[in-house]
Amino acid sequence: MNIVTKYDLKRKVKKEFMENKIPFLDSIASQDVWNVLYNSLNDFEYARGSIISTEDMIGKKLFFIRNGECDIEKTIEVSIKNNKHEIETIRMKRIIATLGSGCCMGEEILLNDNPVYKYTIRVSYILNKL
User: Fold this and answer.
1) What is the tens place of the pLDDT at every residue in 8-29?
2) Where are the domains of the chain?
3) Are 90 and 127 in contact (CB under 8 A)?
4) Nearest Cα to 63, choosing from 53, 77, 73, 48?
5) Helix%, strand%, coil% for the chain, nearest 5
């Protein structure tokens, strides 16, 4: 596959993803607004195990999964009594969800005054690449 064909295929896949997964996109009447939205979506490929965002990190991006799956990890604190009857706090990471194609992540930075990611996003599975 030559470079022009691959570029055209990536554009087509991105356009179809936007049309199928972003609500109300078909109601945008202005081609200029549509083009700004199209150009603001960047296409990245991550390897399995890659961390896309980290809990408590300042957030600047919203993520959509086009292909593959991501685990959503959250740090959980548990307080227990030890043998000396003292309270110890144990921190551990737990997978609280696995999200697949079409899902959005990082939306909490749009909804809060403090744009901090509330969880870690780790790539768990990659489907096909272009």
Assistant:
1) 777 888 888 888 877 777 788 8
2) 1-43, 45-130
3) no
4) 53
5) 30, 30, 40
